[in-house]
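Example for tutorial group B:
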């Protein structure tokens, strides 16, 4: 599900139109926009703290055979949440979108690795010198 949540609306929409446009479905829950509290950890592993709130959109759909799909996506894009829920339902039913999702996962992993490489290249290590005057 996280792969679908991070995929752009245009990409989901294009894939749905190409491969699943004849699918019959209805909204179980119309796309709804809300807020969630984002939590962080001090130093990445320390105590949790409330970082702030962010908007999310959730949606639930039912395919004609009764398979239910759910999605939560960051932001306010109702259509993206709808398509993510549709792909979730298709995957639960027969896995027919698995190649598409595997491709997305690979692309996202590559992008994350490339970003981490760029960040690591600009990392500055700060250190302190002990002066010895205890």
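The residue assignment follows.
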């Amino acid at each position: 599900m996280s792969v679908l949540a991070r995929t752009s609306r245009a990409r989901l929409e294009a894939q749905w139109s190409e491969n699943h446009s004849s699918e019959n479905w209805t909204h179980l829950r119309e796309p709804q926009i809300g807020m969630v509290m984002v939590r962080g950890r001090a130093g990445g592993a320390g105590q949790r703290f409330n970082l702030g709130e962010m908007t999310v959109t959730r949606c639930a759909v039912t395919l004609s055979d009764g398979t239910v799909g759910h999605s939560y996506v960051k932001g306010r894009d109702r259509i993206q949440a709808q398509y993510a829920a549709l792909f979730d339902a298709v995957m639960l039913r027969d896995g027919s979108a698995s190649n598409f999702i595997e491709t997305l996962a690979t692309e996202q992993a590559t992008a994350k690795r490339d970003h981490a490489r760029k960040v690591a290249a600009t990392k500055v290590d700060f250190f302190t010198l002990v002066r010895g005057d205890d």
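The chain has one domain: 4-98+107-121. Compare this with the pattern of hydrophobic and polar residues in the output above.
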